[in-house]
Each structure stands twice: as C-alpha cells, then as structure tokens.
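User: Please predict structures.

Assistant: First:
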Amino acid sequence: IGYGIASSLVHEVGHQGAALLGLVESLQPELRRRQTGGGPRNPWVLWENWISEIIADFWSIAKVGVASTLGLVGLVSMPRSFVFRIMPDDPHPFPWIRVLLSCAIGERLYPAGPRGQWSRLTSVWRALYPVSGLHPYLTQTMASLRQTMPEFVSLLARHCPAALRGRSLAELLAQPDRSPSRLIGRYRTWRTDPAQMHATPPTLAFAVLGQARASGLITPERENRLLRRL
C-alpha cells in the first residue's frame, strides 16, 4: 500500500494546493512565451496542455520523494500501445514521458548524483519501454520533449507566483529532510527506536518507508505492516 497510496493521495493534494495558489494560471503565461511555431506538437504547447497534472506530480515528488515516482511507475506500466499514446484531450502526459519527467523533477529537488536512484530509474524505464519501432513523428515529438525537459523542470522549480510572496515552488515544497540520505538515516533511527514513527507526519512517514523500500532496506510486506500500524 505504500507507493500506490502515497503517490496517488499526495498527487491529489497537489491539485488542491495548485488551485489554492493559482499555480496553473501563473505558469501558463511563462509557457506560452516559449511557444514559437511547431503547431500542436510543439513541446511547450504540450507542457502547457499537461501543466495541471505535472504540478500535482511535482507536489507529490516534493512531499514523498522516490515513493511518488515508483507509485507512478506502478500505475502506468501498461502495454506499449498505451505507454506511447499521446491523447489530444488527456491532461496527463503520456506515460513514457511522464515517468522520465518525474525522475527529472526528483533529481532537481533531491539530487542523487550521476549514478543515483533517479538515473537508475530513468535507465530501467527506458529499458522496459525502448523507443525502437515507433512512428518517426512520435519519436521526433519525444525527442523535443526530452530536449526541453531540463529547461521546463528549471522553470517549475524557479517559478515564483504572487501567492508565494517571493518564494519559488522549490523553496516552498522541497524539504531537506526528504533527501534520500536523510530519509535512510531516519529509517535506521526508527529501527532502534520504533516509537519515533508514531510522531512523524504522514507524508514524511510515507517518504521514509518508500525510500527504504527503494533502497532495498525493507520488503514490501514489512512496509505494509508498518504503514498499517501508522
């Protein structure tokens, strides 16, 4: 129940937070300024079409770390025809690019180095769903999205809407205690003093246990038992 509940629940909270802070409305003008030609498959047009769901994913990653990305992987691991399908009216990024974007946001908020978990997850996802054999038009769209992804993630992290009074989204949402090393350290402390778990805020508890599971320190069954106690 860890990855799935943590990722989905905090994603929905992100929608509410974005609505209260007017994040979609404040980001749209910045995205539109970058839309110069290219028609409906212009990467910046696509980023704008998907921005409401991307902001919710950003919120989830900031709050529960790698548990958010792994929950997303569990949700969208489907046959190739679905993973690579771009639906014009779907506000969600298509699964292949959405997982890569989640890893890129995670790396921006909680860097783990060139051989860290975000790079490994990216490699695993691309190995599971190789791009060979796709229509050239689709591969070109995917390449343009990947090319603009670093700038797009930077735009999200640095965005300073009026509601935040000078603070950026990254400053608001990313927290030092959610870095992979800090989460693992907290989990090891819990092993010697389990009572500390019960005084931990829910999203932090999900983040700690999700990171421990992603790092191979805890089995899914053990994670399940601990979360049920909490």
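Second:
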Amino acid sequence: MLREIREQLNCLAGRKPYTGEMLREIQRMNAIDWTYSCLHLGGSEITKEMVGNIIDGQFVVEATIEDHRLVERLEDTLKEGISLLEMDYDLDERVLERLGQKFFADGRTNWRRGNPLNLEYNFTPVYSKDIPEQIQELFRWLYSDDVSPEIAANPLLRAAYLHNRFLEISPCDDYCEEMACIIMHYYLMQKGYPPFVLRFSREEYRQAVVAYLKKNDISLFYSCLERSLYNKLEVVIQITAESEERH
C-alpha cells in the first residue's frame, strides 16, 4: 500500500496550487483530523462531528467544558507545529517542549518524576531519571541513517515506531497518547503527509500498543496507520477532483 500512497501524493501534487476555497476546506479537514485523532487515542468519547463543530466556533452542549478546552489547545498545537515546520525544525526536545507548552494547560516543561505501573498497557515505563536521555536518543534515531533498510525506505514505518517508542518512555504524567499522536503527525507532516485519523477502536489501539510493548511487534499499529492515511488521501483526491470539475 505504500506505493499506492506515494501515487496518491503525486496525484495531489499535480493538482496544486489549490484554489483559496479548496485550501481552506483542506485546512479545516486537517485540523479536525489532527484534533480528533489525538483525542480519540487518548480515550475521549467526543465525536468527530463534535470536534468539527467546536473548531467552527460552536458551543456543543453534548461536549464537556474540558472537551472544548482540549480542542482549542490541540488547534493551537497544530498551528504551532505548522509554524515550526515552515521554519524547517526537525523534531527534537525543543520542538517537543514548544508543542507541549501549547497543549498542556499549565504550559509544563518538566518530565514525569515517578515510576508508576501503567495499568492501561500493564507495563512499567523507563525510569524517570532516564527520560531525558531516552527522548534525546529517540529523536536522534528518528533522523538517523543507521536503521534497517525497511525503516530507511518507509517514513510511515518510522512514524509508527516513533509513536510507540514515545509511549514506551511515557515522559509525561498524563496525556502521553495525545503527545505521541502529536509528534507522529508532526513528523509525517514534515515528510509531506497530511494529518489523518487513526481508525482504531479503543480496544484495537490498546492491543496494538501492547503488541509493541510486550513483543516489539509494530505490525498491528503500522497496518492501521497505512490504511488510515490511504483513506484520508482518497478523500482529498475526491474533493480536489470535484473542485477541478467545477472550475
């Protein structure tokens, strides 16, 4: 499917530049996908439609006040990510800090201090004292050429490992799934891919993460990532084709 995804990107590249109306439609869709994907992986019950309504400036009575705040913070995180990408910033500790400052309500910059058992995935993350070194090593690996040929040739696979290795470190006391999703999307946007919704149920997501943490098996997570991105690009191809037909 990776070959088909690359063909989709080439198809879309040939349709640029988009009209102002089309560009705004795609940007709105990307904001919804970025926000909903992060919330969904974090266990939120908010729907994609509700996210879209909040992004459009509506107050959604079915959503909590905290839901509205999280959507707003994730929107700000996306804007910060786009700004950093425009300045060609690779993902590193400074970028992670700036993204975290936009996402966390208290603008925190400190790492987890305790060493709790993660009950969701039934594993103990790295010791708190090792977090800075582990995060530094993760970002070094992300842009390293010293990887297997399979990973070197496939940014989607590297992004899948990035997400799961971040959860393996679990550097934050909370919202680790959301931050893992944020940095995964940041890296993929750097490589030319749009934000998309990882189409996991909560249980499927848990099983995919556990498969990696317990067996170093990335296949469940990667398959969903690849399929979800393919579906997102198909939607963009469809709406840009309709735009071309109207013009």
